[in-house]
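Researcher: Please translate sequence to structure tokens.
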Amino acid sequence: MGHDNEYKVETSKKQGIVEKVFEGVLWNGRLFILLAVIFSMIGAIILFIIGSVDIYGVMTKTISVFINHEHPEDFHEMVVGGIIGAVDLYLMAVVMLIFSFGLYELFISEIEAAKGHGASKVLEIHSLDELKDKLAKVIVMVLVVSFFQRVLHTQYNGAQEMLYFAGSILALAIALYFLHKGGDH
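Model: Translation complete:
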């Protein structure tokens, strides 16, 4: 009988050591999330830079138009389209930032620097559902801006196409209304 108890204690110790090692490896495996965090941040920075370069390009073209006293036929569309394209890139960069901060806070650690000095609560993520909700809202805004950019360059050749256009705007407005209503709860 005493021999059985010794065997159980020895087996329990072995299981305990194996279990602790496995759980340690499993827990530290979450650090691979840092790859997604780092590269999401890099992606966001790249998108911010590209959007800013696009705005700079629109600005230089606009200044050139004023200096040369010329007014190209599609000048307004070019300016508005360029700025909307940059806003679209900025919104995608925000998606990447929120994703990066959210993954870090969910899997690695809370960001202490964000807690003090009245920092924005936008980047605080406490659950995967909260991360998904914030990402979904920004992604919807990216789609709205992309829609607006495409609409700017669309030619309408008849009443039916204009009706489709009006219907798409109505659908978009309804979707935004329900998205806003859903965010209140």
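Researcher: Any highlights?
Model: Residues 105 and 112 are 10 Å apart (CA to CA).
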